[in-house]
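Protein: EGF-like domain-containing protein
Species: Bambusicola thoracicus
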Amino acid sequence: MTPKSTVHMVVCFLQLCIVKGQIICERQIIAEWRVEPKHVLIEWTLRKNICTDFYSECWNVNQNATREDKNLSVPQICPVQLQLGDTLFISSEPSFQSYGMNLVNASKEEFINCPKTDFLQDQQIFVCQIRGLHQVDATWLGVGTHYFAELHKRGPYLCNMGLRLNVTVKQQFCQETPNAPLCSKHGRCLSHVWEKQYSCHCFSQYSGKFCQKFNVCSTKPCHNNASCTEKSDGIRNSYECACPPEFSGKNCTEIVGQCQPHTCFNGNCSNVTPNTFLCKCDKGFTGKTKHFFFFFPLGL
Ligand SMILES: *[C@@H]1O[C@H](CO)[C@@H](O)[C@H](O)[C@H]1NC(C)=O
Ligand SMILES: *[C@@H]1O[C@H](CO)[C@@H](O)[C@H](O)[C@H]1NC(C)=O
Ligand SMILES: *[C@@H]1O[C@H](CO)[C@@H](O)[C@H](O)[C@H]1NC(C)=O
Ligand SMILES: *[C@@H]1O[C@H](CO)[C@@H](O)[C@H](O)[C@H]1NC(C)=O
Ligand SMILES: *[C@@H]1O[C@H](CO)[C@@H](O)[C@H](O)[C@H]1NC(C)=O
Ligand SMILES: *[C@@H]1O[C@H](CO)[C@@H](O)[C@H](O)[C@H]1NC(C)=O
Ligand SMILES: *[C@@H]1O[C@H](CO)[C@@H](O)[C@H](O)[C@H]1NC(C)=O
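Structure follows.
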């Protein structure tokens, strides 16, 4: 059989085999960083996982394609997103055994238009034509988006039909130092599908790039409607309360004034400073001021 007839046969065979109807790629819109790297296997075949519509099929996101995005809607293998350090395997369709193709590291334009036959040797992904299972060398999987396309000396037939792959490799910026826990254990290391990296998303009481900062104000230490300000001097649990005029003290719990008889209705009064006092409530009674403000103008 001549090489030309082999190509013809493979193309015809695949055209018969291609599943009709759209393929929706499985996606996590937001992914969490895995501590362990993963082996990812991509089946280099036209029989499944070929999507065409950029948003609704390839990315499974509900967004109308704008005019600029229209040229991104090309048949392709479901795009993948990897973590830096993951390994990628390409497993080729058995019927490609004698077809004699390679993969090429293409530019975005070449990915969209499919590469011509006269492709640079040094952009070929594998040293030989692909047969069965091949591991993609890490040199092709640096941080960023990579476009791998089918390369065949007779032309980009199968690339045009969908044998092209968008691989995005992301790294994480979730550790303050290499051995520190992700997001200081106070958040999650996440990446949205359109983000270029993983970053920390902190639990409610924490902030900072690595969730290393505890927001002490979130514990509401300032009482009596005082406003709380985190102090930026780097000291943990440092805050300042801006008390309303009638309150004082670190947490605005002390009342401005001095103890007088019956100041505290159902409790004992104690002076804290020459200017402030506190009421200690009897069992069963609560309240900030023990009616102090209601009675002070009348009784004292
Ligand atoms: C998106 O498409 C839907 C239906 O296809 C349409 O109702 C909607 O108005 C479109 N939105 C935009 C922003 O074009
Ligand atoms: C892959 O192709 C892109 C676009 O042509 C190029 O910028 C990049 O350097 C290539 N990668 C490698 C490892 O050669
Ligand atoms: C997509 O189409 C727009 C407008 O037609 C063009 O400016 C842009 O260069 C195209 N992008 C690619 C990657 O071909
Ligand atoms: C490739 O995938 C990335 C997301 O990882 C996306 O932003 C980009 O538009 C895709 N490129 C093409 C040409 O589909
Ligand atoms: C202020 O409140 C904190 C708890 O929020 C407490 O630990 C501290 O002792 C209080 N300080 C004063 C002076 O009441
Ligand atoms: C607390 O302060 C807010 C605004 O500063 C004010 O609207 C509200 O009435 C105050 N509440 C009390 C109980 O004083
Ligand atoms: C108030 O003081 C009295 C007398 O010293 C004491 O018996 C009582 O337990 C105190 N009450 C509170 C709530 O501390």
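Remarks: The mean pLDDT is 86.
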